[in-house]
């Protein structure tokens, strides 16, 4: 998709589909809806007035009203998209509204559309421009690429129209729009990786695609296999991969800013779980829904997508990313419940359940990232089903050993628009992973607090380094089609991680 921002009168712009946003200005609980367009254009207001007054359109979030051959406009069609209550309006509704417009056009064979930039004092211009680009790009993604009867319904062109004339505002909006394109495309890159079947996206193939992306955008990249893993004594990572015929991939990406950062600027470490298919190993999963376990590398995809965005946004901060990728399979050589393995850090781990494998590869990845110089750590993983039980499918879990680092991350969320909820990760939970024969067990001693005991396991491998763990198991795959987004991989955490990294730039 090509996206562009133009500064001209939307009423005079020829388009197959012109989109304008509307909000409900009614304030009382029992008042009838009072939809109003988010534009100062008199021509647009006049064309829509009879239909807004009819009462059939309430301007609820995602609601649409289509007008053909609108009077006084050069557009062939006028699409009015609701953003909900005016008092609750934010850029996140705008992001969804742009997605609704694209998803509306796709099945109707409309390859081009335009969107009127929403005019409201509550909406900052630069961030609004960014969310329009993000929303449009994310909405164009579909998961049906392997269907032989697939009809490509991609939108070729989205044009955002604004009548702004202030030069400073113009420049800020252009900058925000360009950032939105980078972030939207990077999120879709991550989603494409997650959507791939396990027989196609093997660890080796993930390494190849990551290396190609790094070469395109100027990142340093190394991809190693089992020999390097054994050389580094990554015993936890090696144990998980030993049951698969597919070789593992240890992927290391580095971003070096053009100007050396200030001496006290942290080096950011991004670590991703890259299990390209997870059967559960010897502790095999039930057959139902196992097909979705191709998504068990969504944490790795988030880090790869974030590095793609970071390379183009060029923040003045050093970043190193480690992805530990392999399959978890039930072979005769696979690791077993009851085994004791030694991680790269030297800690010994008693294996109670081979389906708790993601934390094992992350343990070695987190330790290695510190050896490569990281002084702030963040990892993302589809780690536990327990996080979905605890938080549902709207918020991802956030765990940390450092309040200041959490605050810096959560400060980025009003910009990224993603939802994370902090969960406990305090030392009184450590008893639940204490082993009788090794240093720690790879699961808790009971069914309770599974997401927290998984986080406590990871905490053992970060020491005093400020660290955040994102458990995205409940939000990395969307089973429900939304008006602004298809079902399938969400690409969650790409925007938030990128914004968090940028916050450290000197």
TrEMBL record:
Question: Where do the Cytosol aminopeptidase domain residues begin and end?
Answer: 353-360
List residues binding Mn(2+) 2: 273, 278, 296, 357
Indicate the secretion signal residues. none
Q: Which domain of life is it from?
A: Bacteria
Record key words, sorted:
Aminopeptidase, Cytoplasm, Hydrolase, Manganese, Metal-binding, Protease
Q: Which Pfam families match?
A: Peptidase_M17 (PF00883), Peptidase_M17_N (PF02789)
Identify the PROSITE patterns for this entry: CYTOSOL_AP
Choose one Gene Ontology CC annotation of this protein and give it. cytoplasm
According to the record, cofactor stoichiometry and binding are noted as: Binds 2 manganese ions per subunit.
**UniProt GO BP:** proteolysis
The UniProt record gives the binding positions of Mn(2+) 1 as 278, 355, 357
Its required cofactor(s), as named, are:
Mn(2+)
- Name the active site residues: 285, 359
The keyword Glycosyltransferase appears for this protein: no
Q: What reaction does this enzyme carry out catalytically?
A: Release of an N-terminal amino acid, Xaa-|-Yaa-, in which Xaa is preferably Leu, but may be other amino acids including Pro although not Arg or Lys, and Yaa may be Pro. Amino acid amides and methyl esters are also readily hydrolyzed, but rates on arylamides are exceedingly low; Release of an N-terminal amino acid, preferentially leucine, but not glutamic or aspartic acids
Which cellular compartments is it found in?
Cytoplasm
Q: Which CDD domains match?
A: Peptidase_M17
Question: What family is this?
Answer: Belongs to the peptidase M17 family.
Record's protein name: Probable cytosol aminopeptidase
């Amino acid at each position: 998709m090509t996206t562009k921002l133009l500064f001209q009168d939307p009423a005079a712009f020829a388009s197959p589909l012109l989109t304008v946003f509307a909000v409900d200005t009614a304030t009382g609980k029992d008042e009838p809806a009072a939809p109003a367009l988010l534009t100062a254009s008199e021509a647009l207001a006049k064309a829509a007035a009879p239909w807004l007054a009819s009462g059939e359109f309430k301007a609820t979030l995602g609601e649409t009203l289509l007008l053909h051959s609108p009077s006084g406009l050069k557009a062939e069609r006028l699409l009015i998209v609701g953003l909900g209550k005016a008092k609750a309006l934010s850029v996140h509704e705008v992001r969804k509204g742009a997605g609704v417009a694209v998803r509306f056009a796709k099945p109707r064979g409309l390859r081009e559309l335009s969107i009127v930039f929403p005019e409201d004092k509550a909406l900052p211009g630069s961030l609004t421009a960014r969310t329009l680009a993000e929303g449009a790009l994310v909405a164009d993604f579909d998961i049906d690429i392997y269907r032989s009867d697939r009809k490509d319904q991609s939108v070729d062109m989205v044009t955002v129209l604004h009548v702004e004339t202030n030069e400073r505002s113009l420049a800020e909006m252009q900058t925000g729009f360009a950032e939105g394109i980078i972030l939207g495309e990077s999120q879709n890159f991550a989603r494409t990786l997650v959507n791939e079947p396990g027989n196609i996206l093997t660890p080796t193939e993930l390494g190849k695609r990551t290396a190609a992306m790094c070469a395109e955008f100027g990142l340093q990249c190394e991809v190693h296999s089992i020999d390097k893993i054994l050389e580094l004594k990554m015993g936890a990572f090696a144990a998980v991969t030993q049951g698969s015929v597919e070789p593992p991939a240890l992927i290391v990406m580095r971003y070096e800013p053009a100007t050396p950062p200030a001496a006290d600027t942290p080096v950011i470490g991004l670590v991703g779980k890259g299990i390209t298919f997870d059967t559960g190993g010897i502790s095999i999963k039930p057959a139902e829904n196992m097909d979705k376990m191709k998504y068990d590398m969504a944490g790795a995809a988030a880090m790869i997508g974030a590095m793609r965005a970071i390379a183009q946004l060029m923040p003045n901060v050093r970043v190193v990313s480690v992805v530990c990728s392999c399959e978890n399979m039930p072979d005769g050589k696979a690791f077993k419940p009851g085994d004791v393995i030694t991680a790269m850090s030297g800690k010994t781990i008693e294996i109670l359940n081979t389906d708790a494998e993601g934390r094992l590869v992350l343990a070695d990845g987190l330790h290695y990232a510190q050896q490569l110089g990281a002084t702030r750590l963040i990892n993302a993983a589809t780690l536990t089903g327990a996080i979905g039980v605890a938080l549902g499918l709207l918020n991802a879990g956030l765990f940390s050993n450092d309040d200041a680092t959490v605050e810096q991350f959560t400060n980025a969320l009003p910009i990224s628009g993603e939802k994370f909820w902090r969960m406990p990760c305090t030392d009184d939970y450590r008893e639940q992973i204490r082993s009788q024969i090794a240093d720690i067990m790879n699961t808790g001693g009971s069914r309770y607090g599974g997401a927290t005991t998984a986080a406590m396991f990871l905490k053992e491998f970060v020491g005093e380094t400020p660290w955040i763990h994102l458990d995205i198991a409940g939000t990395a795959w969307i089973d429900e089609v939304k008006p602004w987004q298809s079902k399938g991989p969400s690409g969650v955490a790409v925007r938030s991680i990128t914004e968090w990294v940028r916050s450290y730039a000197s």
